[in-house]
Amino acid sequence: MKRQIVSLVFLSCVSMSLWLSSCSDTQTPVTPDNALTFTSTPTGTPTGTMTPAPSSTVSATPTQTPTATSTPAVFWYDGLVGRIDYGYTVGLTRDVYLDLLVNNSPVTDAVVILTGSNLSSPVTVPYDKPVSYGGVGYAQYHSQDTFTYELGETYTLTCIAMGVTTSATQTAPGDISVLADGSGAVTYASWATEGNSDHVYIRHAPFITTYSLPPDQDSPVSIDPVTPYPDTGYTYNEFIDIQNQTPTVSNGSTSLGFVVGDFLQWDVNK
């Protein structure tokens, strides 16, 4: 019995010694037979700089968008076709005038043409010089003695500038006759064909009006030989303007309109 007790004590001491030894050593984990093992396997090792490839490539030809443009603004300060009789000083001339602006600028390369119902061929009116009215500069086109002025003839003035064609048409009135007194002042005037804007007026040279009959006179007219000439030692200008005027210019605008007329300027020295 004693022997058995010693043996049990010995075995207990051996068992305790083994347990203490297992606690002091580093243990290697035991993987159970049924444990899952996760292994990450890289598919490749990147080198250098990686550029992502596009999933698709779209190719297109750019289409030019039209640019909206405005029509040039053509402005006639005035247009005139006339027979001008300067009386004692110059004599008779036949003139075509056009004072022109395009987009508020004097354009000198326009094509200006006069046509008439009885003209044998069109008359080209060339650029002549710059002129100014009210501080605004215009390009003046002028032609002299390149056509005949005939009563009742229909005249059309056409301007082509920066791709825009403008024109105006009127019929020729006039054929003026006058009577003068001993001082040279015209006291009586008549004309064969009426216009729609006939004027008779007298000026103290150059711009002071001393006498004027109401607008659109009918032939004949009598002119006061005394009242228009308040001072002596001056030259006065008598004007008899027999004209057809239109305020309309096709495809453009105008200030004074287009005039076809017969004009008399008579100088009177007092």
Q: Which overall shape is indicated by the principal axes computed on the Cα atoms?
A: globular
Q: Percentage of helical residues?
A: under 10%
Runs with pLDDT <50, length 5+? 1-42
Oligomer status: single chain
- Counting DSSP H or I runs of 4 or more residues, the number of helices is 1
Q: Overall mean pLDDT score?
A: 81
Main β-sheet: number of strands, strand sense, barrel status? 9 strands, mixed
Radius of gyration: 53 Å
Structural class: mainly beta
Secondary structure tally: strands: 16
C-alpha end-to-end distance: 181 Å
Helix and strand string, N-terminal first?
Answer: HEEEEEEEEEEEEEEEE
How much β-strand is present in the residues?
35-45%
Your description of this structure?
With 270 residues, the chain is mainly beta. It is built from one helix and 16 strands. It has one helix at residues 2-24; strands at 74-85, 92-102, 111-116, 123-125, 127-133, 136-144, 154-161, 164-171, 174-180, 186-193, 199-204, 208-212, 221-222, 235-246, 253-254, 258-269. Strands 1, 2, 5, 6, 11, 12, 14, 15 and 16 form a nine-stranded mixed sheet that branches. The protein has a four-stranded antiparallel sheet with strand order 4-3-7-8, with no helix packed on it. It has a three-stranded antiparallel sheet with strand order 9-10-13, with no helix packed on it. The protein starts with a helix and ends with a strand.
Summarize it.
Helices cover 9% and strands 44% of the residues.
